[in-house]
User: Which sequence fits this backbone?
């Protein structure tokens, strides 16, 4: 089968199947071999690896994954793409095509059955509207992972890596940095896709920590505090936490926590580091 990194081959297969792009699935297919190579390199894929690809589309990246990895499972939500994938991947016997929604799919049982429970690598070209839910779902389900390498909107990649005090810094930065070490592998301009998106993209690699960096008394409370702090960015941390539905601390409790940690009671969430959020959370968890 001809490689799909070549735009001519992509157009040919789309015409053959009279495929129409679905806005609801945020479909943009890669048509640049250099970018495909960068993704494989960033994910550090070898023949030892079992790779789960989320949203293979017509199989452009999947072909590269099949060449480099031991085994590949490709989970695609759009059933119209399944016959295309069966054709574009027909040369490979190390790939399984699965028509399912990744947020409902049982990844744990796939890993048990197909990889004897050992950690896997995840690779994906994610549509903007579902990037955050998918990343958070992979971490919160505690799926055994070696790394996640994803193509996402550049703006989201900037938010993931952001440091305290910057305008990109927010709940997503803290959540991803709590679970993993992010690394920007490549910036990708719109002309590398079909159809062309309006914005630039980036390939980012997330390597999960094998053991947590910090001791956290109550993970659920920590993430509620983080969400509360960024829910209304203009508010002070005290007001953000006090007014957040689902948290029931008095203003006195919150101020006491901040004072005990020598943090100003007028501080806003965006000025606090992950470590400071954890200290506040551990203090309040005793209330």
Assistant:
């Amino acid at each position: 089968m001809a490689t799909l990194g070549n735009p001519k081959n992509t157009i040919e297969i789309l015409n053959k199947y009279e495929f129409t792009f679905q806005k609801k699935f945020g479909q943009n297919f890669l048509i640049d071999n250099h970018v495909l190579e960068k993704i494989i390199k960033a994910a550090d894929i070898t023949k030892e690896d079992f790779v789960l690809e989320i949203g293979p589309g017509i199989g452009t990246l999947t072909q590269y994954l099949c060449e480099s990895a031991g085994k590949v499972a490709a989970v695609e939500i759009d059933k119209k793409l399944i016959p295309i994938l069966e054709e574009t991947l027909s040369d490979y016997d190390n790939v399984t095509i699965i028509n399912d929604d990744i947020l409902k799919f049982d990844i744990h049982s796939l890993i048990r059955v197909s990889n004897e429970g050992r950690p896997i690598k995840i690779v994906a070209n994610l549509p903007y509207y579902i990037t955050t839910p998918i990343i958070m779902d992979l971490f919160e389900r505690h799926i055994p992972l070696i790394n996640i390498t994803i193509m996402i909107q550049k703006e989201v990649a900037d938010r993931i890596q952001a440091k305290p005090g910057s305008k990109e810094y927010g709940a997503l930065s803290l959540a991803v940095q709590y679970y993993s070490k992010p690394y920007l592998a490549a910036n990708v301009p719109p002309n590398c896709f079909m159809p062309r998106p309006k914005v630039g993209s980036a390939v980012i690699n997330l390597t999960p920590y094998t053991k947590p960096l910090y001791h956290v008394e109550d993970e659920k409370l920590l993430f509620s505090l983080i969400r509360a702090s960024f829910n209304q960015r203009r508010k002070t941390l005290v007001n953000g936490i006090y007014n957040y539905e689902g948290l029931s601390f008095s203003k006195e409790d919150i101020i006491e926590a901040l004072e005990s940690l020598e943090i100003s009671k007028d501080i806003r969430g965006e000025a606090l580091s992950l470590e400071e959020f954890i200290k506040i959370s551990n203090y309040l968890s005793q209330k």
Q: What stands out?
A: The beta strands are 29-30, 50-54, 71-76, 95-99, 120-125, 145-153, 180-188, 193-194, 201-208. The chain has two domains: 7-208, 219-284. Residues 219-231 form the longest helix (13 residues). Residues 7-208 form a domain with the Rossmann fold fold (CATH 3.40.50.150).
